[in-house]
Amino acid sequence: MSDPLTLRFASTIRARRSGLTDALATPEGLTTWVRDQDLSPYLDTSTFTADEPVREQTVDLRQAVRALFAQAVAPTPPSTADAAALPPFPDALALVNATAAPLSRQLEWRDTWQERVDPTVEGDGARLGAALANAAIDFFAGPLPAQVRVCPAPRCVLYFIKRHPRQEWCSVACGNRARAARHYQQHR
Question: Quick one: fold of 5-186?
Answer without folding.
Answer: Jann2411-like fold (1.10.3300)
